[in-house]
């Protein structure tokens, strides 16, 4: 199998992430574009139990989400091998992953319905950086919009490095992992929205709470990846080099040690309760 040197691949993926400034951004606000230094608050949502019926601490720190059992395999089909060299093919790949995400998260959702949280599958779009949404026009980045429950995936952050490493199977495997991880992270924001977390955070979505929310989304994304490893296996060499596909050096997503801690928590346990970043000490969410 063809293979580039690891430092070269790392640089390529990091460059791809920085093409959009925020390859893994939080929910975009209505009417304004988020940036690496100033992620604005998410729009109000209507899905799930009203946040005002619970205190903010209840919703963030003692959410019923944390009581779900370990996620189990949803029996998803093996990961698609469609090349990620065009926007259309990238959309096809994401569309192949989305039903697995839906099935995995919906599996135990009946336990959350009793708390008033209704499951709703998100919509998905791939864009070129010029998309206009109910959350504004964020630009060249991947993001989740709570206002219309839609995940918007930026094409160039994956298509660019894929084509730069034409014929390199090892690099393509890592890039595909990065694409899957990004989608699972954004789906994590959708889950947070469904259980009322972003309504509870409101205008406070910046700084400390923003980092905690972003780290939690990555943890939840890895809960999915761990439980569905039969469909989305992570080869040993990729697992030993998570810096090539799992982390992003943007301040509002936390330090690399904090990202490592929470992504490991999600993958090691496959349990949403292991992702309670809102109860974690400051040192774990730096």
Task: Describe this protein with a few key phrases.
mainly alpha; 286 residues; 10 helices; 5% strand; 3 strands
Protein described:
With 286 residues, the protein is mainly α. The protein has one domain. Helices cover 43% and strands 5% of the residues. It is built from ten helices and three strands; from the N terminus they run H-H-H-H-E-E-E-H-H-H-H-H-H. It has a three-stranded mixed β-sheet with strand order 1-3-2. Helix 1 runs antiparallel to helix 5 and helix 6 packs across helix 8.
Structural class: mainly alpha
How many domains comprise the coordinates?
A: 1
Q: How many E-type strands?
A: 3
Mean pLDDT: 83
Residue share in helix: 40-55%
β-sheet strand percentage: under 5%
- Ends distance: 38 Å
Q: Which sequence of SSEs, written as H and E, runs from N to C?
A: HHHHEEEHHHHHH
C-alpha-based Rg, rounded? 17 Å
- The number of helices is 10
Annotate the secondary structure layout:
Blueprint: H1 6-19, H2 56-61, H3 87-106, H4 110-113, E1 123-127, E2 143-145, E3 150-154, H5 156-164, H6 169-194, H7 197-201, H8 207-227, H9 236-239, H10 256-269
Parallel strand pairs: 1-3
Antiparallel strand pairs: 2-3
Short summary:
This protein has 286 residues and is mainly alpha-helical.
């Amino acid at each position: 199998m063809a293979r580039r040197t690891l430092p070269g691949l790392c640089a390529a993926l990091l460059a791809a992430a920085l093409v959009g400034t925020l390859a893994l951004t939080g929910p975009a606000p209505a009417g304004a574009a988020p940036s690496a230094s100033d992620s604005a608050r998410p729009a109000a949502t209507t899905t799930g139990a009203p946040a005002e019926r619970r205190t903010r601490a209840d919703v963030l720190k003692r959410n019923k989400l944390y009581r779900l059992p370990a996620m189990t395999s949803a029996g998803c089909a093996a990961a698609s091998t469609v090349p990620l060299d065009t926007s259309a093919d990238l959309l096809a790949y994401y569309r192949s992953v989305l039903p697995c995400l839906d099935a995995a998260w919906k599996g135990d959702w009946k336990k959350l319905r009793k708390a008033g949280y209704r499951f709703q599958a998100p919509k998905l779009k791939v864009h070129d950086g010029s998309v206009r949404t109910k959350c504004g026009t964020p630009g060249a980045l991947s993001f989740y919009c709570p206002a219309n429950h839609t995940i918007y995936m930026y094409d160039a952050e994956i298509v660019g490095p894929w084509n730069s490493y034409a014929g390199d199977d090892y690099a393509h495997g890592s890039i595909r992992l990065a694409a899957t991880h990004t989608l699972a992270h954004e789906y994590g924001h959708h889950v947070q929205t469904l259980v009322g977390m972003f309504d509870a955070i409101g205008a406070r979505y910046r700084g400390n709470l923003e980092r905690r929310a972003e780290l939690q989304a990555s943890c939840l994304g890895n809960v999915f990846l761990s439980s569905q490893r039969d469909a989305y296996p992570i080869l040993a060499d990729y697992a030993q080099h998570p810096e090539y596909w799992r982390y992003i050096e943007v301040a509002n997503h936390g330090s690399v040690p904090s990202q490592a801690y929470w992504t490991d928590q999600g993958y090691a346990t496959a349990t949403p309760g292991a992702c309670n970043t809102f109860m974690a000490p400051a040192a774990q969410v730096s």
